[in-house]
Amino acid sequence: TDEVNYSKEVDYSITGIEAGAGVFKAAEDATEEYDNLKGWEVLASSSGAMATALGEAVSKEEPIIVTGWTPHWKFAKYDLKYLEDPKGVFGDEETINTMVREGLKEDMPNAYKLLDQFHWTTEDMEEVMLEISDGADPAEAAAAWVDENADKVAEWTEGVEKGNGESIELVYVEWDSEISSTHVVGKVLEDLGFDVSLTPLDNAVMWQAVANGEADGMVAAWLPATHGDLYEEYKDSLEDLGENLAGAKIGLVVPAYMDIDSIEDLKP
Ligand code: PBE
């Protein structure tokens, strides 16, 4: 028969993102855990390049398998689905947590309180992400969201006293989700009177910077699985302020027009 062989069409490869991302490592694990993915390659690139490749494939209705995650604007722009993961390599639903350096509470109690009270929903984050994917500057998209969501921001700033130009540094990775959250929190801190810097780093370096006190905090810890190894490594030298978002997820994502449902449906 001339039945489609997606595996061959994608050249036995998964379109990945930064090699330091948890979802990239999970995809590599999948190529070991699933017999039908033996010998497959996970291609390292960037989150932006992955999104471009996905958009191009969709416009031509070609097959593609990407390392994906939720929240992400790609689900609003394209008709996509997660491949079922019967072996559970990509884990279950996760939370995104806020981590700060030791001593922040004593040094900057108000910035600490704001970071501790920051929490939002996947829908909130997706609003900011969509604006950015449509071409808005991250800082402008964040400012617009903060402007339109005064009630939510008021919950985060409740009991927080204004800053007086104190410097605070947040670190993040240039994933679409973290670009959004970090710029929103940064904007709120700036409006409170802090001198905010936002520094993009590699994933492992982001964790390390907060753990060794070089940076003040981050809102980009995906737990328990995606960044579980980094959390284990650094948890004794940073402070976990708990979740800022629930309902996050990672996995292998394909366009809905691909006629498969599970990772196990891919031909060896
Ligand atoms: N992500 C987005 C990250 C966490 C946030 C899913 C690409 C990762 O895989 O590490």
Write a structural description:
By secondary structure, this protein is α/β, with parallel strands linked by helices. Helix content is 40%, strand content 22%. Helix 7 (122-133) packs across helix 8 and helix 7 packs across helix 10 (176-191). The longest helix is centred in the last third of the chain and has 16 residues, at 176-191.
Please provide the count of β strands: 9
Number of domains: 2
Which shape, going by the Cα principal axes? elongated
Residues in β-strands, percent: 15-25%
Number of helices: 12
The gist of it:
This protein has 268 residues and is α/β, with parallel strands linked by helices. The chain has helices spanning 6-9, 22-33, 47-59, 74-77, 104-107, 109-117, 122-133, 138-148, 150-156, 176-191, 203-211, 228-234, and strands spanning 13-15, 41-43, 66-70, 80-82, 94-101, 167-172, 195-200, 217-223, 238-255. The strands form three sheets. Strands 3, 4, 5, 8 and 9 form a five-stranded antiparallel beta sheet that branches. A two-stranded parallel sheet has the order 1-2.
